[in-house]
Amino acid sequence: MPARVRKRLRYWRRIFSAYFGSKTSQLTFWHETPAVNYAAPIDEIGEYYMTFHDKAHYGGPFDDDGIPMLDYRGELGRQYNPIAIAQYGLAAYNQFAQGAGDEWLDKTVTVADWLAGNLTPNPSGVPVWNHHFDWEYRDTLRAPWYSGLAQGQGISLLVRAHAATGRDAYAQAAERA
Where in 9-109 does DSSP place strands (E)? Predict the structure, then answer.
């Protein structure tokens, strides 16, 4: 069987398993109805402009430090996805900013610490959050790969974490990113 056909079969097996398998998959995290957060200010740092309500209540899996992981099943298994991590952190920050309790600030700080500690230079020397797994999109994104969405949302979380805690490490990591 040609390599191109094998690649497509792997892709469709993964999609089928994610949608129709009996266990939770990465889709558990991604599939929520997008909602604008009308409480988000437009002229200062505050709540993020999307609610990410369902993401705040993501049921896992998490690593031992409380960082969300996505289960891509099969060969990929559980992976850190910097986009999902940043979105979970932004969701936690929104919960904290809405007065849901200090445990949400703790979750925000956990994610901010992970983001600040996991910036690595890309081939051009720009610090990014890498995805350490291959991903079939239009073409296969070969690990390590990075995403503008991870960069933007990671920076957004770090800026908010700095505003909430005053920790300079978050502002410095946001600047580097």
Answer: 70-71, 78-79
